[in-house]
Design a protein that fits this description.
Helix 3 crosses helix 5. The protein has a seven-stranded mixed β-sheet, sandwiched between helices. The protein has a three-stranded antiparallel β-sheet with strand order 11-14-13. The chain is globular. The protein is built from 16 helices and 14 strands. By secondary structure, it is α/β, with parallel strands linked by helices.
């Protein structure tokens, strides 16, 4: 089943259109149906309205917008002719993109060591200074394990106990049997998809979303449905109705400082998600990669964030994945899955056919780092807060036409550009020594050209210089020029 957007929901998305037709100017000189069709087309191209969604009936949308049904009928006809809507008599109309406009999401880039290049493609930080001491202590701890074979598919008990204890401190009672250690968050997702999603089964993802997650779903040959996140975050009614209608095998969501939009899901929506997923026969995969990186003062104390989605789970439908990459260091490939103990045992058995187990020494280093968690995370938050505000100030000064919501946590700003030029701007910026991730890498089928993800994980001077070069590249786009196509490079 496809998701359905109701008339009132689409009217909220079209609020800017309603303002446009109520004023004099260029928009007012065009027929209302053309303005309406352009507004819907813009929502699709920007990724704010997902593809494959059934639009409201003409009468319903006309009533929601307070316009004539004739106007809506003409707008739908215009959208069909441009290839942005397909209709079946008596069944309804669905969003799509014109033939030839669809592009696949590829796996992404790796950081570059090229001299002079400012790399904003990777949302990750250098290792904390505490890593060296933690590694030295881990080498000492290793002697205890050297007499055994070293293969523990579930992971070392000492690390699983530490992770379970952290969940318990957050108000989610957890035992070590509910935790399995993986080779990073990406492997945690990959293993869950191998276990839960057969080729051809449906998977629901947000759009925009983390591009390497999209790559994992594509590699598993899942049928992807999407839910579009708006400028204010999740629309509760639309998300819940999409979960129910899609009846996907799994839904992948990032509720804490969403990557890339930075939004924080409210507790009221978290509470409603597990029952909706259970009714649809859907398992929720909740990515908590950024959960430790709250930046606003009121969110930094334990218990200040909304409860974990799993705290509202009564039917074993929620699987939580997390890891060390964002708050600690990406070079330490340690992640985990938290879920019902029987499923975790099945996951460990399936994992044996992939890589047997995670490295013992890495797990011991992670255990020692978690003992220093409060010190490390506090320093990370202070550093990221300064860098976030520096990047935001630079964008306001150099690119005032761009819009963004200042994130309350995480590592990135999701910027809305002044035109749908994200991919072209990324190519132009790289010629000036700045690597950025264009919006289409976070969407699907060619959408998100009006957006760009900008991490604030680099030093302040680099961020200021990067924005200056971006502004120069944006100006260059309006001049006739040949741009060299650079080789693809991986995002984190």
């Amino acid at each position: 089943m496809s998701a359905i957007v109701r008339g009132a929901q689409l009217a909220r998305m079209l609020n800017a259109w309603q303002v446009a037709v109520g004023v004099r100017g260029p928009a007012g000189k065009r027929p209302e149906y053309v303005v309406l069709a352009n507004a819907v087309r813009g929502l699709l191209i920007d990724g704010r309205l997902a593809l494959g969604v059934r639009l409201p009936a003409e009468r319903e949308l006309a009533a929601a917008l307070g316009i004539s049904r004739t106007t809506v009928t003409a707008a739908y006809r215009e959208l069909r002719e441009s290839g942005h809507v397909s209709s079946r008599r008596g069944a309804g109309s669905w969003t799509e993109l014109p033939a030839g406009h669809r592009v696949g999401t590829t796996g992404l880039w790796t950081p570059s060591d090229e001299a002079g290049l400012i790399d904003l493609g990777c949302a990750a930080m250098p290792a904390p200074p505490e890593l060296a001491a933690a590694a030295a202590e881990a080498v000492t701890d290793l002697e205890h394990y050297m007499a055994g074979p070293g293969y523990q598919p579930m992971g070392l008990l000492v690390l699983r106990e530490a992770i379970a204890g952290r969940y318990t401190e957050r108000g989610l009672p957890t035992s070590p049997e509910q935790v399995m250690i993986t080779g990073g968050v990406q492997q945690a997702l990959d293993l869950l998809l191998r276990l839960l999603v057969a080729p051809g089964q449906r998977a629901l993802v947000e759009t925009p979303t983390y591009p390497n997650a999209l790559s994992a779903f594509v590699a598993g040959r899942a049928r992807i449905s999407s839910y579009a996140i708006g400028p204010d975050g999740w629309d509760p009614d639309l998300l819940l109705s999409t979960v129910r209608a899609a009846q996907a095998r799994v839904a992948y969501l990032i509720p804490e400082f969403h990557n890339p939009t930075g939004h924080l899901m409210p507790a009221s929506l978290r509470e409603k998600l597990p029952p909706a997923a259970h009714a649809a026969g859907t398992d929720l995969i909740i990515d908590e990669s950024f959960v430790d990186l709250a930046l606003d003062q009121e969110l930094t104390a334990d218990g200040a964030l909304p409860p974990a989605v799993a705290a509202f789970d009564r039917t074993a439908r929620v699987l939580t994945i997390g890891g060390m990459s964002k708050a600690f260091w990406g070079g330490l490939r340690i992640g985990w899955v938290r879920g019902p103990a029987p499923l975790i045992a099945r996951l460990a058995a399936a994992r044996v056919g992939v890589d047997m187990a995670s490295p013992v020494l890495d797990q011991l280093v992670a255990t020692r780092l978690l003992q220093r968690r409060d010190t490390i995370v506090s320093a990370r938050r202070k550093q990221l807060l300064v860098q976030r505000d520096t990047l935001a100030a630079a964008l306001r000064a150099e690119l005032p036409e761009w819009r963004f919501v200042l994130p309350r946590g995480g590592m990135v700003i999701w910027a809305e550009l002044d035109a749908p030029v994200s991919s072209a701007l990324a190519r132009s910026a790289e010629e000036l020594g700045v690597r950025v991730a264009p919006g289409p890498r976070f969407g699907a089928d060619g959408t998100m050209e009006r957006f760009m993800r900008l991490p604030f994980t680099l030093p302040e001077t680099d961020l200021i210089e990067a924005v200056r070069r971006l502004a120069e590249a944006r100006t260059d786009l309006d001049r006739p020029r040949r741009h060299a196509w650079s080789a693809q490079t991986v995002l984190a």
